[in-house]
Amino acid sequence: RYPSLIESPPRRPGALDGWPELRPGDASPGTGPDGAVLYARHCTICHGSDGGADGPNTAYLPTPPTAHADGGHMSTRPDDALFDGIHAGGRILGKSHRMPAFGATLGPGEIRALVAHMRTLCACSGPAWSEDGR
Description:
This protein is mostly helical and 134 residues long.
């Protein structure tokens, strides 16, 4: 019997205990990308589940990741810069090269959903000059 492509691989005991178990189809069909699900899947390992820069990988990074829950810092960064950092990686913004580029993994709608979720973590918006009147 061939394994189903939608079955999750077996987990090692104790691997990522307390982290959400995510499988294809976690977002409701027809609702668009779910930024919280994408954040849990791709970002929490470094940035932490609440955006506090306290994920399990943080101890192994030479430079701490951005704290997405820090409204003081995040309010200085326009959405376009957040989009670019997710799409092309940290190096494009002069940040750590260890922040991977997700442009080949995530589509533009998924990256926009991640940016929107990051705005909920910091309870902030970008700088006033960056608003486009939407």
